[in-house]
Amino acid sequence: MGGDLNGPTEGKIPSFMIRALRDLDGANLDRIQIIKSWLDQDGETHEQVYDVACSNGRAITPAYRCEKNVMDSVNIEKATYSNASGAPAMQVYWKDPDFNPGQLAVYYVRVLEIPSPRWTTFDAKFFGVKRPELAPASIQERAYTSPIWYTPATP
């Protein structure tokens, strides 16, 4: 997890092999994303989110996003959900389609679970109280990797 990439060999592009598994007692996985940030020639920062794997056979659009949202099975009143959608494990091999060997960049992986009840929804059910109106009823838990830093080769 994490690391440094120093100026690739001529014509090489950063490539990542990613494998994610759901928690044994947790929700299935919705998607895998790579978040890339970089510094342009003017010193301005930029960020791009790439959906690189989508569960349930969903395609990835030309804008690098899953074509549609994963099914939301959350039952707010019962504070339950179903693992009928998503995947228990996902894996993908990805190459940066927008790689510029002269730009400083950083990559990290984010994995999203399918929607599940938020803790306030569980508490409202357990204690028999009204769920806070301003709090979301469900969430998509996420896991992040350590960053991988790319530094261009110096001439």
Question: Mind explaining what this structure looks like?
Answer:
There is one protein chain. This protein is mainly beta and 155 residues long. It has one domain. Helix content is 6%, strand content 38%. The chain contains one helix and ten strands, in the order βββββββαβββ. It has one helix at 119-127; strands at residues 3-6, 15-21, 29-39, 45-54, 89-95, 105-113, 116-117, 138-139, 142-144, 148-151. Strands 1, 3, 4, 6, 9 and 10 form a six-stranded mixed sheet that branches. Strands 2-5 form a two-stranded antiparallel sheet. Strands 7-8 form a two-stranded antiparallel ribbon. The chain starts with a strand and ends with a strand.
Question: How much β-strand is present in the residues?
Answer: 35-45%
Number of strands: 10
Measured distance between first and last alpha carbons: 28 Å
The SSE string, one letter per element, is: EEEEEEEHEEE
> Overall mean pLDDT score?
94
Structural class of the helices, strands and pairings?
mainly beta
* Whole-number tally of structural domains: 1
What can be said about the biggest beta sheet?
Answer: 6 strands, mixed
Please tell me how large the radius of gyration is: 19 Å
The number of helical segments is 1
Low-confidence sequence ranges: none
Helix content: under 10%
Question: Any idea what the shape is?
Answer: elongated
